[in-house]
Structures are given as C-alpha cells and as structure tokens.
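Note to self: the last two entries modelled the partners one at a time, which told us nothing about the interface. This time every component goes in together.
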Amino acid sequence: MEKIYSRPIGLKKSINGYCPGCLHSAAGKLIMSVLEEFDLLERCTQVDGVGCSANNHTSMDVDSIGSPHGRPCAVASAVKRISPETVVYTYQGDGDLASIGLAETMMAANRGDNITVFFINNANYGMTGGQMAPTTLMDMKTSTTPYGRHAQEHGYPMHMCEVLNALTAPSYIARVTCIDAANVRKARAAVKEAFQHQLDGKGFSFVEFVSNCPTNWGLSPIESLKFIKEKMLPEYPLGEFRNR
Amino acid sequence: MPKIEIESEYCKSCLFCVEACPKKVIGTTSAVNSKGYQYAVAINPDACVGCAICATVCPDAAIEVYK
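The predicted structure of the combined assembly is written out below.
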C-alpha cells in the first residue's frame, strides 16, 4: 500500500497556533508542500509580519525573520539583495500588507524585487479582536464598525491584486482561495507558479488567499466557508491577474 | 484497500473533511484529544476510495491517505 497524501515535512510535528478551521493553516500547508517539492526547505527564508500571520512560526519549520509591523517586503528585499541564492518569501495578513505596510509593499512591487509575497485576506484584524481592515466588505460588522462598514465614513474595500496590477514591474499576480478541494489544488498551482517566477529571476510575485476568520466573524468553520463563497468571492474575484 | 489515517492530536474539529468526503467515511465520536477537540475519525472506513479530498481540504494536515 502506497502513501498518496502525506503531511509536508516542513510542518512541525505539533498542533499549530491557529483557530479551528482557519485557512491560514491551509495556506501554510500549501507553501510548505511546494517548498518540499522544489527541495527549497534548506535554502529559503520566510519573513513574517505582525498579526495572525506571525502565528505561523508555530507550524512552519523553516528559517524565518520577524519584521517590524508592515515591513516584511522591505526586509525581504534586503535579504534577497544580500543573498540572491536564497529563496525569500513574505507571509502577511491584510492589516500588515494592505494597511500599515502598504508603502513598503507598493515600493517592493514597483522595484520588481525578486521576492514572493503571500497575502492572507480575511477582511478583518484577526489577532487583535476583529477590527475593520482596509479589506472589510461593505456593511460588514466588525468590532470597530458595529453598524457595518459605510462608504461615507470608512471608504471601500481595497483590492490589492488590482492595485498591484496597475504597476509595470510585478511578474505574477493571482488571487486564490482554499474553500474546497478544487480551489486548494488551484491555490497550490498558483503558489508553485509564484516560486517558479522567483527561481527564474522574473521579479515580484504575489499570491492573495481569500481567507476566513471564523472566530471574529462569529461563524462556525463550515459557515465561514459559505460566507467566503457567497460574500467574499463576488467582491474579490479569483484568478490570475498577470503571468509573464 | 484505500484507507486514511487521522492524527488525532493535530485535529481541531473544523469538520471540513466530514463536509467534503463524498463517501461519508469521516465523522466524530465523543472522544476528545488533549486540547479538548472532538477529533475526526474514519467511522465508515470500508467506504473509502482513496480520493484524498479530505486530506486536501484539511487545513491542519492531520490526514494521510494510503492507496
């Protein structure tokens, strides 16, 4: 009998720090499985932001750097310039990448730094208790928008793939999700493509995961997947925005 | 015969696998792991066809599949 699906060796042999049903774990699993396939576990560096994304040190068994809040892209650029043979990727949430670290993200993308960025979009600030993020949907209730997000007061959701797609330098931009088996396979293909772009020296690659936050959305894990399908995906359409 | 192995200590009882399994192989019992989660178990292992959908959707990589 042959083992056809196994746990990636890059994941630590312990329970990770995420809530039940959190798709952060799924994104981490895919990244580790692709790194294992490319045999890069020994020569990659992960740069963590601040927030729930920083929890992944509890599961991912690779070299990592904890950067100041929002600055993983700047730190990753530095690592890549000092050590070009190292495969560098950042792992950031929406508060980190789209809010406090927007300038660093845009500048790294505009320079076309040869790094890979993974962006987990769960429409709120998960770690600090579910406050509104730039990516929060219209009329979505969070702890800082108890009557829902309104355009006049809070603006509109930010679409990072579309924003980055306006720049010339990035080489790969995709938005994926992990809500079912078919989408997980597509997400894995996107992660693989993003690392391939970095290995080929093509420049900035960016993968956005439309993710969930069952705890702060106040939904069960299964209900949160339905919420993604019905509410998040119409606002954040999936697909490859650029591949060259 | 195909079979799945679930590492009970990694499971957080999100039940994605229970929802995703096309053959209804997986379910939960009253047993809990050391964190207090009612972990998933193969309650109907004979029906397993080894499609690995459960392992694919498991965010915590708790499921391994043999075929």
